[in-house]
Write a structure and sequence with these properties.
Helix content: 55-70%
Shape: elongated
Order of helices and strands: EHHEEHH
Number of strands: 3
Radius of gyration: 20 Å
CATH class: Mainly Alpha
Distance between the termini: 69 Å
């Protein structure tokens, strides 16, 4: 297990498209068996599986793993608490995206209305 008071600086995520489980382990400071366990516990974490069930993580997966690591090891959340926090944040993000889309549509429609009224 990680020492919460230990090195909190994680390496920068390289600009690659896919990462192996070993690379993600190094990038996130978590052992591969922990990553496999987290896949079962966090529905948001779904690496691409290819030939031979090899896992390939994308950048957003690495960022999510770092968030999970912080919630568990730094903030002291339980697995269940971290899962709930991440799903509530995801719901809030989705809601904000919808609000932004709706506002953008309203702005576009108002611009069209102004254009039609000026004629």
């Amino acid at each position: 297990m990680l020492d919460p008071g230990g090195n909190l600086q994680l390496p920068e995520i390289p600009g690659k498209r896919y990462f192996t489980i070993g690379e993600v382990s190094d990038l996130c400071g978590v052992k591969p068996h922990v990553l496999r366990y987290w896949e079962q516990e966090f529905p948001q974490l779904k690496p691409v599986k290819r030939r031979g069930n090899r896992r390939y993580y994308q950048r957003h997966d690495v960022i999510l793993i770092r968030q999970i690591r912080e919630l568990l090891y730094i903030d002291g959340f339980t697995i269940s608490g971290a899962r709930n926090k991440l799903s509530s944040e995801h719901a809030i993000d989705g809601e904000m995206d919808r609000e932004q889309v709706v506002q953008s549509l309203i702005d576009d429609l108002e611009a069209v209305l102004e254009l039609l009224e000026s004629r």
